[in-house]
Specification:
This protein has 424 residues and is of the alpha/beta class. It has 2 domains: 219 residues, Mur-like, catalytic domain (UDP-N-acetylmuramoyl-L-alanine:D-glutamate ligase, 3-Layer(aba) Sandwich); 148 residues, Mur ligase, C-terminal domain (Protein-Tyrosine Phosphatase, Chain A, Alpha-Beta Complex), CATH 3.90.190.20. The strands form 2 sheets. The protein has a 9-stranded mixed beta sheet with strand order 2-3-1-4-5-6-7-8-9, with helices on both faces. Helix 1 runs parallel beside helix 5 and helix 2 packs across helix 8.
């Protein structure tokens, strides 16, 4: 009964959202891919707001429910009947009354199972598409026949583009490049590759008062060169959303200088390699939003080269929704953890493979995030750098919360809404 009701509500939301799009005809920029969508969406919106009245998806609202909520400009009502009444009121007002509606929508779109993006594309057709990374083993692969099917679905918004419309893709991703050559789109590339139209180079940690405070790089576009700084998060992956945003700026005629200035206020979303002061003078890299093999690999690469660490600790939760790839990917990532850290702590049943293959690194095994949150604070020493990462349902933000030196920082963590907190 619950699934039937959910299907009916999704169907009605789609009809209303499609009607709103038809009435106001906003320019729609879709952000798709398997990694980094939410960060990229935020950076793209920050740049486009220079010239347009923009509305972007809140948080990671990228589903058949989240996209209509963004189009309607309402918050997720969860199970609150009064909030659903507000959704109805807003929909009626948009369709029947004059409104100052956004000229541009930046919509994050994602798929958990086959056909999800087809449903979204029936609601709204993109005028520009930004594709992030499509890795070899993508998240949600257990719901698909193959990784190729996942990549094809994640790339599918690009097939809906009109001829010569902007298609912004990673120059570092062979799957995206191979798919893009089939299309008559205006292709703009970004990344670290020398072939990228918007190229980031000289990537390094950004320091303030001798301490790591973010990332910095030089960005080149055509004959121009600018410096970009992303504060509060670490890893080359935190710079890529800015490069994608600068490519989007070029697509819509926004000069590089102005676009770079707009990014000065950009901050990666919660749970994306955010830096926090930890207990006992330690440093936390809070990457607790989610975990896929590609994302964990990048996080471990950052931990391995983090400057000044006396001890590197990788706290890694299960990587879920990998299906038949789960065992081999957990074992592969475990070997990377061994090379990147002095101590590996696993959280969850699948994550035990991280410690089995951790070689010379010390190991700790925890059944769940609550057990890890109780034990780890007493083990942390001055100068430790602690990476915390795991799939959403593992709730590794609980571990970050327990490790924080400043309790006020709890509000900056992922999944702090009352609805999530009730799931403790």
């Amino acid at each position: 009964m619950k699934e039937i009701l959910k299907t009916i509500v999704a169907f009605l939301l789609a009809i209303v959202a499609r009607a709103v799009v038809h009435r106001y005809r906003p320019t729609i920029v879709m952000v798709t891919g398997s990694v980094g969508k939410t960060s990229t969406k935020g950076a793209v919106a920050a740049v486009l707001e220079i010239r347009f009245f923009v509305r972007a998806s809140e948080k990671s609202f990228n589903s058949e429910f989240g996209v209509p909520f963004t189009i309607l400009g309402v918050k997720n009502p969860w199970g609150n009947p009064l909030a659903w009444l507000q959704v109805v009121k807003c929909a009626v007002g948009l369709l029947l009354l004059p409104n100052h509606y956004p000229k541009m929508l930046v919509l994050e779109v994602g798929a958990d199972r086959p056909g999800d993006l087809a449903k979204i594309l029936r609601i709204a057709t993109p005028h520009a598409v930004v594709v992030t990374r499509l890795p070899e083993v993508p998240v949600h692969v257990e719901a698909y026949a193959s990784p190729e099917q996942v990549r094809e679905e994640e790339f599918s918004p690009a097939y809906a583009l009109p001829a010569a419309a902007p298609l912004i893709i990673s120059a570092d991703d062979p799957y995206t490049l191979d798919s893009a050559v089939r299309l008559p789109s205006r292709i703009l590339t970004y990344g670290t590759s020398t072939d990228a139209r918007v190229r980031i180079e000289e990537c390094d940690f950004y320091l303030e008062d001798g301490k790591v405070a973010g990332m910095q790089a030089v960005v080149r576009e055509g004959g121009e060169k600018r410096k970009i700084i992303v504060k509060g998060s670490v890893g080359v992956t935190q710079l890529l959303p800015c490069a994608a945003a600068l490519a989007a700026a070029e697509a819509f005629g926004i000069p590089l200088e102005g676009a770079v200035k707009a990014l000065e206020g950009y901050k990666p979303p919660p749970g994306r390699a955010r830096l926090f002061a930890g207990v006992n003078d330690s440093i936390i890299i809070d990457d607790s939003y989610n975990a896929s093999p590609a994302a964990v690999e990048e996080a471990l690469a950052t931990l391995r080269i983090f400057p000044g660490a006396k001890r590197r600790i990788a706290v890694l939760g299960d990587m879920l929704e990998l299906g038949r790839f789960s065992v081999i990917e957990h074992e592969r990532v475990g070997k990377l953890a061994r090379d990147s850290s002095n101590l590996v702590a696993s959280v969850g049943i699948r994550a035990r493979a991280f410690t089995v293959t951790s070689g010379d690194a010390g190991t700790l095994v925890f059944e769940d995030s609550k057990a890890a949150a109780l034990a780890l604070p007493g083990l942390v020493k001055a100068g430790d750098v602690i990476l915390v990462k795991g799939s959403e349902s593992i709730r590794t933000e609980r571990i970050v919360e327990a490790l924080l030196a400043n309790r006020a920082d709890v509000s900056k963590l992922v999944r702090q809404d009352p609805e999530w907190k009730r799931k403790q």
